[in-house]
Amino acid sequence: MPSRRLPNSNSERSNALNRPTERVNQIPPPAEIPYTATTLSKLSLLQNAYQSNVAAAAAALRGQTDITAVVNETRAQAGYFIADLLDAMQRAVRRGAFNASVRAYYQLPVGESKIPRMRTESEVLEWGTKAIQGETERVAAGGVAITFPDLSEVEEAFNAFKNANLQQAERKTAYENAQQAIANSNDEVDKLILKLWNETETFFDEGDKPAMRRKAREWGVVYVPSNGETPSPADFSLIGKVTKLDGTPLADVTLMLALSNLAIETSTDASGNYYYGVLTPGTYQLLATKDGFDDATQADIGIEADQLVELNITMQPTASEPDVGPATEPDGEP
After folding, report:
1. Cα(332)–Cα(165) distance, rounded to whole angstroms?
2. Which architecture does CATH list for 228-316?
């Protein structure tokens, strides 16, 4: 017999609060509401607060994602300008226009000809500071200014990256705070969800367990096959597993199953499995989403009465930004 699976992620908790709220607010309202007045009142208060926290976290995540793209772009640009400045200085040394001792201004070993690699944000910040300070001090000591690029161009690119980097840190903190606000309320939310599900099952339990589970699912109760149990079409219409390309299971994948104006959301468990209860016959579309992976879609999923469809999904990691920043040296060495 299928067993309940209580939420184990924020998205699942959100769904478990949203579904009964939607059912209660339907027009015309359901003829039977399985909750006590006390539970309904608590649901209204906690659902609003939880969704506000979830929305704040989503907005903070979007802000962090947006600034990351700016950081990547400005980091590359700053790295190029810093490397070009140091490269111009080193070429002047090789031509004899500058004495090799000027490398000390930039905190570079005088006896070497290499310029530093800048592959990380911290390296760009470190060497940008050293390069700008070194060029300023060298010119102040009577040296001829490098003009391609000149110091103002390097500073402009470097400051753009520094500002973006600071904004990224601030937005990361904002997202962490928003996530913590959700975590702080999860214990209370879990207790309420358990109460909602208990009241739902008690209300609809008239001895026919499959019928009870079908009604309870409409109010957000989630059922999965018990350990070792083979899923039955009496309880499930669509099941499957979501994995990476190498077959590794993917947990907490959000799945949205759509039929006309109907959309049913669920998520994968720790083993990458997902389950949809008994569905209205029709042709559905399924969308799978997870941060760090390209969306996966499956159209034309035919669901028929008293039949169980198994659909496994493979998700492709989102292409990461290439490692940017100069990694060449003036003498052509790698």
Report:
1. 31
2. Sandwich (2.60)
